[in-house]
Specification:
134 residues; 4 helices; 0% strand
């Protein structure tokens, strides 16, 4: 949920004509959104941990002289359908990785300063707006 959606909800809640049913519906939707966000976060953490474990096992296997150190990483990537299908895709992935690597220093050195509002809060107006009940 975006900042502007929260602002819309706050404005609706503080409006003069408050209806209990409307507030209950908003609260229910917020709880649903929170539950979905927690499930997505848990899933992403699980994927990250699996990939990190496979990467560490790959490096450890290489350091130990294993004849096929990439086995762990290949298995994890294959499990999620992330292995390159052909040479053209492999070249594209390598090109994307080189470009991303060259952009990282620019992002770290020239991070734009965030403008803040007089009350110290920044405002964001991105994303799809939630329709509030009337």
């Amino acid at each position: 949920m975006t900042r502007s959606e929260f602002d819309d909800i706050r404005a609706h809640i503080t409006a003069e004509a408050r209806h209990a049913a409307d507030l209950l519906q908003i609260a229910s939707e917020l709880l649903d959104d929170l539950e979905q966000a927690r499930v997505r976060e848990a899933t992403l953490r699980s994927y990250y941990l699996s990939l990190l474990t496979a990467a560490r096992a790959t490096v450890a296997a290489s350091n130990a002289g294993d004849p096929a150190p990439m086995t762990f990483l290949v298995h994890e990537l294959d499990k999620h359908g992330q292995l390159p299908a052909d040479d053209a895709e492999a070249r594209r992935i390598l090109s994307d990785a080189k470009t991303a690597q060259s952009l990282i220093p620019l992002l770290e050195d020239e991070a734009p300063a965030r403008r803040s509002r007089p009350n110290g809060r920044s405002r964001s107006c991105v994303g799809v707006s939630r329709t509030l009940p009337r």
